[in-house]
Every structure is written in structure tokens, then in C-alpha cells.
Amino acid sequence: MPSSSRLAFTSSSKPGSSTTPNFRSVGSGTHCPSNHRCSVTLRSRYSPNNSLSVPRMFASMYRAPGIGLAATQVDVHKRVLVLDISEDKSQLMAFINPEIVWASEELSTYNEGCLSVPDYYDDVKRPARVRVRHLDRAGSVQEFDAEGLLATVVQHELEHLEGGLFIDHLSRLKRERVVKRLTKVARYDEIAAHNRAERESEEAGA
Ligand code: GNR
Ligand code: NI
Q: Catalytic annotation on 159?
């Protein structure tokens, strides 16, 4: 289903650009997943801190727009994921301390994209079915089986919490090519922001 995975990104959405300032893409030097393992496991009780981050994460995910978001992508270093794979964006899911307790041997391939790797899509092979254990927002333990898109997205998001990205599954050549391009884009964005700030301060001074 490569085409449906693309639905999460419209041409007007440019993750990492000034419209979504809380996203940092690969290559910007400060992007969390490339250099940070999000190892903070939350206590079993759902704390007020988490109740703050979950609604904000939903807002970031819907605005992006994306079908899933890991806390680490918005610089929240906690093991929290939000998902909504429904067409009409009516099925919020929030997972605290998620873990995969079982994965099928059978693999499936999905054409993945990522808010942290803007404008790049590629096929990734992952277990076709997984069983996920997590805390819900009330702090109770939940378990469910996922397949299809849900299984793919849960694994994609969990990977973010471990400091990984879907491009880690690609050949070194492909990965280095996309990182190089995004590093260049990030540098241009930086220069543009610098020029804008300079112009604005000149205008304010004049
Ligand atoms: O919005 C997203 N779409 C998507 C499509 C295929 C496989 C994974 C994803 S997750 C992505 C949002 C994102 O980057 N979450 O980390
Ligand atoms: Ni992602």
C-alpha cells in the first residue's frame, strides 16, 4: 500500500521547515533520533508531566500531518508514542512505555516515510505482526496485537525511541545519500533564517 502511506504527507507539509518549528530533521545537527537514545522509562503511574506531553504530541502529529509521532521527535525524552492511522483522524492512540513482546517471523514490506526524514520514502521490511504492551494514559497495562499499517507504524515509532530511523534499514549508500541531502537543506534553512533575522533587524533599525 505505498500510496496510502504517502497520504500522511501533503505537498503543503514540509516537516522541518518554519511551519513546523518543533521538528528537526536529519542533518540539522540537533535532531534527537540521530544521536540520542530515549531511555527514560516512565514510572508506572501516569504523571502530570505525561498528561501534558500527550495532547501536545497529538497537536504536533495532526499539524505535521503524520500518522504517528514519537516523543523524541519533538524533543521530549520520554517513552511516549501517539498514533492515529484512521482516514478521518478520529482514532487517537497514546502508548506510554511501549514494548514489543512478540513479533512474527513473517515479514512485510511497507513504503515508509518519516517526519524526521522529509521528502524521502523507501521500502522497509519488518515483522508483519507484533504484540505490543504499554501503559495507557490512566497508567494501566494494556496489550494488543497489530498487523498491517498499525504494526508498521508502531515499529517505526518504537525505533525512534531507540534512537533509530527507518533509513537505518537501507543500504549505506542510500542512507548516506539522503543524510547528505538533508544536511545540505538544513544548512540552507539556517542561512535563510540568518538572512531573515539580519534583514528584520535592519528594517527595525531604519
Ligand atoms: O506519517 C507517517 N507516515 C508513515 C508512513 C509509513 C510508515 C511510517 C510512517 S510514520 C510517519 C510519521 C513519523 O515519522 N512518525 O515517526
Ligand atoms: Ni518517523
A: no
